[in-house]
Amino acid sequence: MTKWLKFWPFLVTPIVVYFNVELVFIPKLMLLGIKGWELFGYAEIAASLELAYYGWFFWWLGSLIKNNPKLKEFYDDAKAKGVDKVLRKLVKISVELLLKESKNKRLDNAKNGNPKRESFFTMFLLGGGIGTWILGLLIFHATKSYVGLAGLFLGNAVKIACFVLLANLVGFWGYLLVTLVALFKAYRFVFDRIKDKLSNIAMSL
């Protein structure tokens, strides 16, 4: 039993995913009659904790892989085959397409296996995007730039503030409608711009 307790993050993470701040947490608070600055406070705290948890979870998952002999063997084998370079390239391409910074030298360094500190502004933009914070966390774990991490959290906070403002302006049903449309548009925006790149990477493996 004690052995399995070490894997509790695999049980907690689906709960964190379900209680997504923008799509679930804010609407639930609205149904409870919470709005205005009170809604803003609860949402900002929840969003910061959510981002911090995912950052910790990525670190924990990496440690689990590296410290488990069987998983480490698989990891080393994948690394030897250049899979890690492909993943870094994918992150670079995704960020370039989202932010239109195709000549970003810092991301070029990350691609070449010598990552440098990601810019505060770039990480701020990733934190402010819908779902793009995942790329921000991947960049942080590659660069260990706490300046960039601060930008990611600040961007996330600004994004949540915008969602709370929207919730107070249009009400529950209006908020749900606009949020779902925004999520769909964000998905289409990202998917349409990286699907060709993904296909090219897959063909090169």
Describe the structure.
The chain is mainly α. It has one domain. It has 10 helices and no strands. α3 packs across α10, α4 crosses α5 and α4 packs across α10. The protein is globular, with a radius of gyration of 19 Å. The protein starts with a helix and ends with a helix.
How is the topology of this model organized?
Blueprint: H1 2-5, H2 9-18, H3 21-31, H4 36-67, H5 69-80, H6 83-99, H7 105-111, H8 120-128, H9 133-143, H10 146-204
Helix pairs in contact: 3-4, 3-10, 4-5, 4-9, 4-10, 6-7, 6-10, 8-9, 8-10, 9-10
Task: Summarize the entry for a quick read.
The chain is mainly alpha-helical. It contains ten helices and no strands. Helix 3 (21-31) packs antiparallel against helix 4 (36-67), helix 8 runs antiparallel to helix 9 (133-143) and helix 9 (133-143) packs across helix 10.
Provide the gyration radius in Å. Answer: 19 Å
Percent of residues in beta strands? under 5%
Query: Percentage of helical residues?
Result: over 70%
Total beta strands: 0
Specify the number of helices.
10
Distance between the termini: 40 Å
Order of helix and strand elements from N to C terminus: HHHHHHHHHH
Low-pLDDT sequence parts: 97-107, 109-118
Number of domains: 1
Which class do the helix and strand fractions yield? mainly alpha
Overall 3D shape: globular
Features of the shown structure:
205 residues; mainly alpha
